[in-house]
Amino acid sequence: MHRKPTIFKPLGQSFDQSLAIIANANKPTSSSFTARPFLKWVGGKRSILPELVKRLPETYGKYHEPFLGGGALYFNIQPKSASISDVNFHLIITFKVVKENVDQLIFNLKLHAKNHSKEYYLKARERLFTEEDPIHIAGLFIYLNKTCYNGLYRVNKSGGFNVPMGSYKNPAILDEENLRYASQVLQNTTIKQHDFLHEKITKGDFYYIDPPYHQAYSGYSGQGFAEREHRSLADFCHKIHKKGAFFMLSNSNTEFVRELFKAYNKEKVLASRSVNCKGNGREKQHELIIRNYG
User: Fold this and answer.
1) In terms of CB atoms within 10 Å, which end of the chain has fewer, N or C?
2) What strands, in cross-sheet order, belong to the sheet with 265-271?
3) At residue 86, does pLDDT exceed 70?
4) CATH number of the domain to which 201 belongs
5) 30 in any annotated domain
6) 43: nearest Cα among 223, 225, 171, 167
7) Residue 185: what pLDDT?
8) How far apart are CA 177 and CA 190, in angstroms?
9) Residue 199 lies in a domain
10) How, if at all, do strands 246-252 and 189-193 pair?
11) Beta carbons of 273 and 282 less than 8 angstroms apart
C-alpha cells in the first residue's frame, strides 16, 4: 500500500497559492545564458570542458550521454536533440523534475533552505529513500547534494545514502535562475534511467561517455564499476564505432584502459578533482580522452 506523499506547506498561504506566486516570478530572459550543472558531482567535467569541447565532432546527429552525473558537457553545448541517462534513480528523477516541474521544485527547495539544520539534514537523508513523490525526491536530492560533506554522492551496499552533513555556513541550496535555464535546456532532451548497454546506437550520432573511472571512486549507485564493467564498456564503444557513430570517452590514464582502447585516438589531459572524498585526490591528475575519430 502506497502512503500518501507529504505536502510541505508554508504558514499563511496554501500550496496552490504559493505555486501561483512562483509561476509568475521572473523568468530567464537572456538567450545567451549558458545553464550550469545544478548538482555537484564526483568526477564532474567542468575543469576540462574546453578540452572536451574542442574535441567534439564537427557534425553529428543526436547527442547521447549515458553516464550523466552533473551533465557539465551537456549543459555547456546545449544540444538541440539529446538523450541523457544514468543508472542512478534519484539523479534521473531529479533531472525529469527540473525539466517538467521546475516551479514546484523551486518552492520545495525554498522550504529546505529555510529549515536547514543538522537535525533536518539527518531526517532528509532518511526520507530520500522512503519518499514517493517525484518533486519531493528531487528537492531532497538537490538539498542533500548541496549540504552533504564535499558534495559527495555515496551509497552503501544496501543502497542507503550515508554521507554526513558538510560544515558550510551558507550552503547554496537554491539557484533559482540556473534551475529555470536548466529546465529550458532540457526541453528537447529524452531522460531515461538505464544501464549504458541499453543506450540505442544510431549511425552519425555522438556519444560522450564518462563512466566511473578505472581504479577510482565508483560508489554512485551501490553497484560498483569494476574491470568487468570496463570491458563491457569497451565492447559498447566498439559497437558505436562499427555502427558509424562517434564516441568520446573520459577515463583514467592506466595501462588497463590504454590496452582496452588501443585501436583508438588517446590523449592525456590534466584534470582537477575539486570534489573528492580524499584530500589528496583533489590535485590535478592526467586522464585520458579517447575518440574513434580524428
Assistant:
1) N
2) 189-193, 82-86, 63-65, 206-209, 246-252, 285-291, 265-271
3) yes
4) 3.40.50.150
5) no
6) 225
7) 97
8) 22
9) yes
10) unpaired
11) yes
Q: Is the pLDDT of residue 83 over 70?
A: yes
If you average pLDDT over residues 1-5, what whole number do you get?
Answer: 36
**pLDDT grade, residue 27 (50/70/90)?**
very low
Mark whether 101 and 147 lie in a shared domain.
Answer: yes
- Is residue 7 a part of any domain in this protein? no
Q: How many CB atoms lie within 10 A of CB 62?
A: 18
In a shared domain, residues 58 and 201:
yes
Higher pLDDT, 40 or 203: 203
- CA torsion, ordered 162, 85, 285, 216, to nearest 10 deg: 50
The residue segments making up the domain with residue 80 are: 40-87+194-294
Q: How high does pLDDT run on average in the chain?
A: 85
User: Residue 63: CB partners within 8 Å, gap ≥ 6?
Assistant: 74, 77, 79, 81, 82, 83, 205, 206, 208
Q: What CATH number corresponds to the domain at position 169? A: 1.10.1020.10
